[in-house]
Specification:
The chain has 504 residues and is of the alpha/beta class. The chain contains 22 helices and 13 strands. The chain has helices at residues 2-6, 35-46, 56-62, 125-140, 150-153, 163-170, 214-229, 235-241, 249-262, 267-283, 288-304, 310-327, 332-344, 348-361, 366-379, 382-395, 403-415, 419-432, 437-449, 453-466, 472-478, 484-497; strands at 18-20, 26-28, 31-33, 52-55, 68-76, 85-92, 109-112, 116-117, 146-147, 159-160, 174-183, 186-195, 200-210. Strands 7, 8, 9, 11, 12 and 13 form a six-stranded mixed beta sheet that branches. It has a five-stranded mixed beta sheet with strand order 1-4-6-5-10. Helix 9 runs antiparallel to helix 10. Mean pLDDT is 79; it is low at 94-99 and 229-246.
Length: 504
């Protein structure tokens, strides 16, 4: 019906809602009825126009046999149905993309999907997310793995995708999925590793443990995956690669919540992330992962131009990152936070060294790869910048925070003095992240470069709508470009477009 409707005007289209259930059907003459039919009818009403909703009973019959994916809608109260029904929304297979699926790397490649929270308590979502995130971090320390970054895999959260689709989208061979059920002082974790090229289950295990042993379980899962995917490497090597587990589980939970806010990349979420990381440190002063998060929460606003006091944000980010490294000098994220401090301070030698150290410790850290691309962009190294940015996208193909990687491509085109590419990349950036005011600055500058002043002024209006206090002086203070000629050229474009000077 969808194909039929494509060629018809709106008034001539026929759009259906479909509900599917598996259950007993009572046939009464020309009529059918019964609870199984009633549930299907209610699912029909729950569907979107042109959409399909199915019950969990139906879902269990078709999972893995359908060329599409499912969005888990959870338990739904349906009219005249006594018990809540677990519902899934069907997501048909996507039309072929212009971009081909990423090729499989030469080394074992794996994506860890968000673990499902089976506790029936929304508050435990952070706990379940933290389990899968820690497994990603542990696997990333093994240089013989290619591990998809956390932000890409979170794009599948709340859905029930076909494992083959996940592998194709992300360009990996293996997919790890699992679920977590937490109750009282006990936790049950179930995990399974799947070869997505064949659909075969390679390994599966269930762990019932007291919460005090949660980090030991994570280590066991990591070891099991390592043994299943790369059996030539001994378990002793896995143990040597482990990081020290946090001493305080409540602190760890606060860190997971802080990370969730941090990577939403809004000004308000950055403030909330700072609060959560500080609370985690109060509970466990020696938690290097909490200091990692706090350093990033200080520095990201400085890099985005959101810091109320730029110098104070730099100093706090520097002190916190250094303290994280004093707790664990093998901590890749702390090296990235330090690189950001150096970058915002226009110390291009130190920022590159810190990024390279982070990638030496964790070659799968897409954020470090992308930041290295941004650094090269500001240095005017156009080809190296785009090489590192391509690598970052390969490591995290569905990363919802990749708008800042788009920003780096814009900067690379600006400094390379490529007006047409500069405007095209700036427009791509604002299409992907319409609330990123720094992107609209670049749109304005790109229009000035092409003598399109009315469009440039309209772009500046968007900048001031999103950030009413933005001024040329604020740009001058925060832009990390170390080349004064490029900086003044960019400021000149913004002045011509109408950005206020900010000087009394």
């Amino acid at each position: 019906m969808g194909g039929r409707n494509d060629d018809l005007p709106e008034a001539g289209r026929m759009t259906f809602r479909v509900g599917i259930n598996v259950g007993d059907v009572i046939v009464d003459g020309d009529d059918i009825h019964g609870d199984g039919v009633n549930i299907a009818a209610r699912l029909e009403g729950l569907s979107e126009p042109g959409g399909i909703c199915i019950s969990d009973d139906a879902f269990r019959q078709v999972r893995g046999k359908f060329n599409g994916s499912f969005e888990d809608l959870g338990l739904q109260e349906l009219k005249n149905i006594s018990e809540p029904v677990h519902v899934h929304r069907v997501r048909p297979s996507r039309a072929p993309s212009v971009a081909a699926s990423p090729p499989l790397p030469d080394k074992p490649s794996i994506a860890v999907l968000p673990f499902q929270n089976m506790s029936g308590d929304a508050e435990q979502e952070f706990f379940a997310d933290g389990i899968s995130e820690d497994i990603i971090n542990a696997l990333s320390r093994f240089h013989w793995f290619f591990v998809i970054a956390r932000n890409s895999r979170f794009s599948y959260k709340g859905t029930s995708p076909d494992i083959r689709d996940v592998a194709g989208d992300l360009g990996v061979k293996y997919v790890l999925e699992g679920c977590v059920r937490k109750g009282g002082n006990w936790v049950r974790i179930t995990a399974q590793l799947i070869d997505a090229t064949t659909g075969n289950h390679i390994w599966a295990e269930r762990y019932d443990r007291e919460l005090d042993d949660i980090f030991a379980v994570q280590d066991e899962i990591t070891e099991a995956i390592t043994g299943a995917v790369a059996p030539s490497f001994a378990a002793a090597e896995a143990r040597r690669a482990r990081a020290k587990a946090p001493e305080n589980l409540d602190s760890w939970d606060l860190v997971m919540r802080g990370n969730w806010h941090l990577w939403r990349m809004t000004r308000e979420d950055m403030t909330e992330a700072q609060r959560l990381f500080e609370a985690a440190i109060k509970l466990d002063p020696d938690s290097y992962i909490a200091h990692d998060g706090l350093a990033m929460a200080y520095q990201l606003p400085a890099g985005m131009g959101w810091a109320d006091d730029l110098q104070d944000s730099r100093e706090m980010g520097y002190r916190t990152a250094r303290h994280a490294l004093s707790l664990n000098d093998q901590d890749a994220l702390a090296h990235v936070a330090l690189a950001m401090v150096h970058h915002v301070s226009r110390d291009n030698h130190s920022d590159k060294l810190s990024c390279r150290k982070a990638l030496e410790l964790n070659p799968n850290l897409a954020f470090a790869e992308g930041l290295l691309g941004l650094i090269h962009a500001h240095l005017g190294d156009y080809e190296d910048a785009n090489l590192h940015l391509d690598n970052a996208i390969r490591q995290s193909p569905r990363d919802p925070t990749l708008s800042w990687v788009g920003l780096a491509r814009v900067v690379a085109a600006l400094i390379a003095d490529l007006p047409e590419e500069y405007l095209a990349k700036a427009k791509e950036l604002t299409d992907a992240a319409p609330d990123l005011f720094a992107g609209w600055r670049h749109v304005a500058a790109a229009y000035v470069m092409q003598d399109r002043l009315e469009e440039a002024k309209a772009a500046i209006a968007q900048v001031l709508r999103l950030n009413p206090d933005d001024t040329l002086e604020a740009v001058r203070r925060s832009i990390p470009t170390s080349n004064p000629e490029v900086r003044e050229r960019y400021l000149g474009y913004l002045a011509e477009a109408g950005l206020p000077s900010g000087q009394d």
